[in-house]
Amino acid sequence: MAGRLIVISNRIPTGDPSGGLVVALHDALLARGGVWVGADPDPSEEGRECLHELGDIPYRKRAFRLSKTERQNYYSGFANSVLWPICHRRTDLIEIKSEYRADYLAVNLRLARLIAQDLAPQDVVWVHDYHFLPLAMMLRSLGVTNRIGFFLHIPFPNITDLAILPRPEDFARWLASYNLLGLQTRGDVARALEMFRADPRAEFLRDGTVKFDEHIVTVASFPIGIDCDQIEATARRADPGPFGAANPRELIIGADRLDYTKGLPHKFEAFGRLLQGRVDRDARPTLLQIASPSRADVAAYRQITNDLQAISGRINGQYSELDWQPLRFVHRSVARDRLIGLMRRAEVGLVTPLADGMNLVAKEFVAAQAPDNPGVLVLSRFAGAAEDMKGALLINPHDLDETAGAIDYALAMPLDERRKRHADCLAVVRDSRISVWTDRYLARLASCVPTLALSRHQAASA
Ligand code: ADP
């Protein structure tokens, strides 16, 4: 019998599980038993030295608490103002401060100690995302030899961008302390291997694994997916809700967290280009961009919000008619069922990130379509989803004319071609469904080379 599963993620869900990844991890924890560890969802709960139990369910949820300063330095600082921009090729937005790194390491070390206290020998640890890169190295230094897997949900950085990190040499060492380094795409795997190849401390073994100091790490891609059966079922009964007086004839939908990586200014400008180039003045496409607020305590996010308000105002000022507002920029979250209903109602799904680990909106849009009369996905080639979704119209979001042309083509696409492209995309979405993703990852982790016990001396000097 396999040991318990210990999941570590930034967000620890409360209430009924919802959302593909949360449900999948919940199911894996139900099946194996275990513990889900994450930051306390209530930021007013400040505290330090223990893990707090949240509710009683078949597996345990334990929350770690951050002080206000730690939240600023560890979370908004090192995680979201250093690692996030580095991984998304926005090195211009990096803010380096020594206290960011110090608190990032301090929070991870505190967490490692708390987790190590509670680990049984057969337990398997699965760490999620860039908030916890050094966790395995710290657990190893405490003598933990359990299998520890990591999954990076965001893009693996370019080797040249990594050099901008304070102490860039740490990055490879952090990751090599895991047994399995899971990444979204084959492109991410290539970048991770390039990092190890350039590092004299790393040695490639004949089975493709990487030996680094005393550790052996497997690097592989596990493209994440969605619960497509559930989204397809929701879409069949979902109601997009009322549109008011201006019910759009041709609806283009965008739904993103309001993040500078999502290429929203590019999306708006490309839509403006489409309006500018319209031959048929009676054509009245509407871009409905729903953007959920995100990370407003980081300056770059406040800036992009202002930029988007200015661009949408300009485009609407230029092209609106008395009975038509071409761009509707809705800066809030929308209930899940309604969002899926809007996706099904839309003729085009427009997904334009400049860099994105996977992009689940692209997969949700495909799953939400009616197969006999589907809408068309226009997808940035810089989303991880584009690596396999060749049925989408792939675009370079920096090329506004190309994006405008793709939207135009999508709006006019004959039914046969829409069906064919949609069937191709849906096959990819179904192949990567989230329940399969969890099973594949955990099976691979179980088959990884185990970590040998380090002597106390080695552990202490690690
Ligand atoms: P990220 O994880 O970077 O935010 P993804 O596209 O992978 O990007 O996942 C975003 C998730 O948030 C999707 O499940 C999507 O449906 C949901 N979402 C995005 N925008 C909104 C919105 N405005 N309202 C509600 N849900 C949203």
* Separation, N- and C-terminal Cα atoms: 32 Å
Radius of gyration: 23 Å
CATH superfamily of the largest domain: Glycogen Phosphorylase B
CATH topology of the largest domain: Rossmann fold
Structural class: alpha/beta
The distinct bound ligands, ions and cofactors come out as: adenosine-5'-diphosphate
Topology, number of strands: 16
Any idea of the CATH class of the largest domain? Alpha Beta
Q: How many H/I helices?
A: 16
Mean pLDDT: 93
* CATH architecture verdict of the largest domain: 3-Layer(aba) Sandwich
InterPro entries: Glyco_trans_20
Keywords: Plasmid
Protein name: Trehalose-6-phosphate synthase
Family: Belongs to the glycosyltransferase 20 family.
Brief overview:
With 462 residues, the protein is an alpha/beta fold. It has helices at residues 20-32, 68-87, 98-117, 135-141, 159-162, 169-176, 186-197, 228-237, 264-276, 299-319, 336-345, 360-368, 400-412, 415-431, 434-446, 456-461; strands at 5-11, 34-39, 51-53, 60-64, 124-128, 148-151, 180-183, 202-204, 210-212, 215-221, 250-257, 285-292, 327-330, 348-351, 376-380, 393-395.
